[in-house]
Amino acid sequence: MSGIARVVRLARRPGPDIRPEDFKIAEVDLAEPAEGEVQVRNTWMSLDPYMRLPLTGQGGLHAAMAVGAEMEGAAIGVVERSAAPALPVGATVMSRRGWRDRFVAPAAGLQRVDGEFPPQWRLGVLGLTGLTAYAGVEFVLKPVAGETLFVSGAAGAVGSIACQLAKRRGARVIATAGSAEKVDWLLRELGVDAACDYKSEDVGAFLARICPEGLDAYFDNVGGPTLDAVLGVMKPWGRIGLCGAIAQYGDDNYRAGPRDFFTIIEKGLTVTGFNAGLWGARAGGEMLQALGQMLARGDLVWRETVVEGLETVPAAFVSLFDGRNLGKLLVRL
Amino acid sequence: MSGIARVVRLARRPGPDIRPEDFKIAEVDLAEPAEGEVQVRNTWMSLDPYMRLPLTGQGGLHAAMAVGAEMEGAAIGVVERSAAPALPVGATVMSRRGWRDRFVAPAAGLQRVDGEFPPQWRLGVLGLTGLTAYAGVEFVLKPVAGETLFVSGAAGAVGSIACQLAKRRGARVIATAGSAEKVDWLLRELGVDAACDYKSEDVGAFLARICPEGLDAYFDNVGGPTLDAVLGVMKPWGRIGLCGAIAQYGDDNYRAGPRDFFTIIEKGLTVTGFNAGLWGARAGGEMLQALGQMLARGDLVWRETVVEGLETVPAAFVSLFDGRNLGKLLVRL
């Protein structure tokens, strides 16, 4: 044994309102790194909405997690003990072993991180977040000048990149977010053409006011009533890109379709789901290169909301679902 | 006044099980054709599943019909009195004034029908039915050799054309229909590779047995539990073309989405709705020409189920929803 790690476990299956008490922090023994293994001290971990899905017990791609199991997710860490020549002490690595402060694992399963950008960007704009936004805008929706694209969850990590990519393509971009501060940020810093705080204006009313001619394309991060409202105002032949459905993740069946699915037939809509896993495997290198170039030129605004320490993780994760955070939510450990 | 017409009216709003008693036949006076008008005796009328939608009172593209209102739909008829030089007595015309035996209307709203094919084909393979099937296969799903396409409602008017078009493109075609006789017809006459009677085998079990590697594409005529089963076995990147949802048309909300909509995100599926209205306006001429050439060469099997007389219309319409008819359901008047 070489020490103690603290790890976040699922304490109980969350109800419709996920709470910090649904998680607990436990201490576990760390084994001595065996041949080919390293011990890593995590420095950054990612909190993403999709991580709620296996907690629901509803199945799907993210299989149901047992109560008591250790949470998982992307993390950046530094090797502090090494029995693997490829990863010496001091090396920075990315893993799927977030939600804990330390771990021991085979070096072969870890990805070394270097390069010109802050390492935690690999958890966001240069990781799953950036790949998701890029695929949705550049490969799925492809908005062009003269078209109006609507982005929900626009001040979030994926949404904020999606807005900027769509603006670069020349589209008119309209957006929703969960506070007046976020709306202000979207308009002033990201150059979004119009935005609404969905907590103070009905999204359907906003769309009718701002875009009476209807929408050409929709980048959907939230599902739920917003998707229902959008289906009502899509133009014929419109495109909807499904990225996530955060407004549904507390539902009895978060996987359910919209109330007015039949509109897809009547309007000849195309609805395409996308995720970083599939698109990353197909075109990840190309996408990360393009995003890296934009970042290097200062052409992409990237905002992180950072909280500190493993003990803050349960409350920070819960905050993802109340619309409080701006940009990418990260924990510095 | 120049006579009497018989017309089918909505007698009451149908329940989940639509019944002939939901309709009634009434006699109405026919006005003398005014200048520019003609009196038409209908010879053929079309019965199509979508005609149930306005009866539900649930809104959508086909606005809710009032109880007592006259039913509508495509019909072929012959001009029997004319006050319009462009349409002399004896001319064959197509109208939206089906569900009645005679009507008087402005000639300008009628379409003259001539050409080498039986006129009632304009209600089917050379009309909305053919356009729908063609658009779904050739413009939306585009199955190719090496791919497996699944067609539900495959022995119906649209489904039977869709199967044949997909076979011509080189795809493997598997199908469901509502009787052993229909399955036999699909296999023997249409060259479908595998087919199942959904009344005697679970569709999910059939798909698992016939296509364990998953589906590349799905031509959906039925929605409901079949769409749920298909979502579970689509391959990543698969395409679903939404044509109709006949299994849902008796539901409280026939417009609702599938239980596992979220699979669209997880598998990166593309779901595209289509209809003859939108695609006909965009490419109707091209599509009808292609279908006409296939028919002229004998390359397309086209089957009609014909019932006789206006009094049979309510029961015939109801029969659309129990899976009894093969091919296109027509009424000869």
Which fold name fills CATH's third level, the topology of the largest domain in chain A? Quinone Oxidoreductase, Chain A, domain 1
Q: Could you state the order of secondary-structure elements of chain A as H and E?
A: EEEEEEEHEHEHEHEHEHEHEHE
Q: Number of helix segments of chain A?
A: 8
Number of domains of chain A: 2
Helix content of chain A: 25-40%
Strands of chain A, count: 15
Class of the largest domain in chain A, according to the CATH hierarchy? Answer: Alpha Beta
CATH superfamily of the largest domain in chain A: Medium-chain alcohol dehydrogenases, catalytic domain
Biggest contact: A-B, 33 and 33 residues
- Which regions of chain A contain 5 or more consecutive residues with pLDDT less than 50? none
Main sheet properties of chain A: 7 strands, mixed
Q: Give average pLDDT of chain A, whole number.
A: 96
Q: How much beta of chain A, percentage-wise?
A: 25-35%
Radius of gyration of chain A: 20 Å
CATH A-level architecture of the largest domain in chain A: Alpha-Beta Complex
**For this entry, what is the oligomeric state of its chains?**
homodimer
What structural class do the secondary elements of chain A suggest?
alpha/beta
- Estimate the global geometry of chain A from the Cα principal axes: globular
Search tags:
333 residues, globular, 2 domains, Rossmann fold, Quinone Oxidoreductase, Chain A, domain 1, 15 strands, 6-stranded parallel sheet, alpha/beta, homodimer, 7-stranded mixed sheet
